[in-house]
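Cross-posted from the bioinformatics board.
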Amino acid sequence: MSALDIAHVSYSYGERRALDDVSFALAPGRFSALLGPNGAGKSTLFSLLTRLTVTGQGRIRIAGHDIATNPRAALSKIGVVFQQPTLDLDMTVSRNMTYFAALHGLSGRQAQARIDAALERLDMRERAREKVRALNGGHRRRMEIARALVHNPEVLLLDEPTVGLDTASRRAITDHVHELAGGGLTVFWATHLVDEIAPQDDVVILHRGRVLAHDRAETIAAGKPLTDVFMAMTGAEAEEKTPA
Amino acid sequence: MNPYLTSLTAIVTRESLRFINQRSRFLSALVRPLVWLVVFAAGFRAALGLSIIPPYDTYITYEVYIVPGLCGMIQLFNGMQSSLSLVYDQEMGSMRLLLTSPLPRWWLLFCKLVAGVAVSILQVYVFLAIAAAMGITISPAGYLLALPALVLSGLMLGALGLLLSSTIRQLENFAGVMNFVIFPMFFLSTALYPLWKMAESSQLLRDICAFNPFTHAVELIRFALYQSFNGWALLWVVLCLVLFFGLSLVGYTPTPGTDRRKGRG
């Protein structure tokens, strides 16, 4: 069974087609990148995967649960890190985590044990009592990732999680999340930065709402730098659509 | 603990802590009705004669008359402020966290509503305590009986705020709420003058006041504070609560083709 199965999904903002017959499936326990330039439809797809937006066209299944017919079961299987930070800055890391755990129905010792484990996984345990405002951008992101793991999701969705971070923080977070995938979690990571993708990762290339490729990064690259291949794919496509 | 109770407790705690942390919000929530009570009521005391009307069984001063209306005003502002924070949360992203929880959406929104009411009731009782210190006292039973009335009126006004936040997607659009919702609701109600007084100047204005749900919220609180029961006000408040909350649920339920925002990436 696929961890995430998307079949023939389309979505439009008025006249503008944001997603056009998107279909792919992610294997469990793998790091899969959703690679696309700005405006490719990545955030729209994430909105659909988190049910903030719904579409009448196509089907989305998360860990076997159809998000249209069984949204609560589907949502319980995903952890989400949004592009925009969603933290209460004046509350401690621990209180932010407890609040999120409660939104998933977790409380008391069970919640505390999960919070400790999630913070430990991201090397954030010693920061639990600090106010979020006191953390730097990299640590805030790590905290959000730890928070997204509290309810033991099967699929972790991250929408451009390294936006606004410096190179060192970006690298640290990318490495951490690759390790999470190594531990059996299915990771779906939206980005427009090719250097966040390892050769053995799966990659879905999305451009102007359509899937251009879905394979291992090294297979898509075919011996060339992935950046060049990505630029050629999306650049060529752009030229095709640009009127002379 | 039951997941529903867990989430309710967490949301109420979060909103209460946020409110307590925002000292300026707490202060302005108190100063606003106190200015009305101390300054406005003092000026109007001489100008506005009040006859004996239920639930009062004697002549009362104007300060005494407007206290329930000011309790309602605290809740009206609070309902709109919660709504403003919901719009802010939607723009800033923290609403997404709430809406991607696997608990039913209606429950999560109801928890938000309850959290807003808890904060508003805290403000009302602090205001009543200050009013009592100024000599406007109510019997202990009145303070107690006002609680269920305040819960209902708070829920109704909060639900109105929720409904507004489900239709207003951007903060800049929210300034209009002040002009088009808060002020008309407050001034076209029995918060500042009784219905018969309004009828003296205009029957139409009197009818609008009688139709205004805020009037019924104020009357529900007024009667409860004086250990009386106003069934008509209760019915109006409950009906409006059900209507506003129902419509806001519709507004917050994603349906294909309702997203008017531009895609970002």
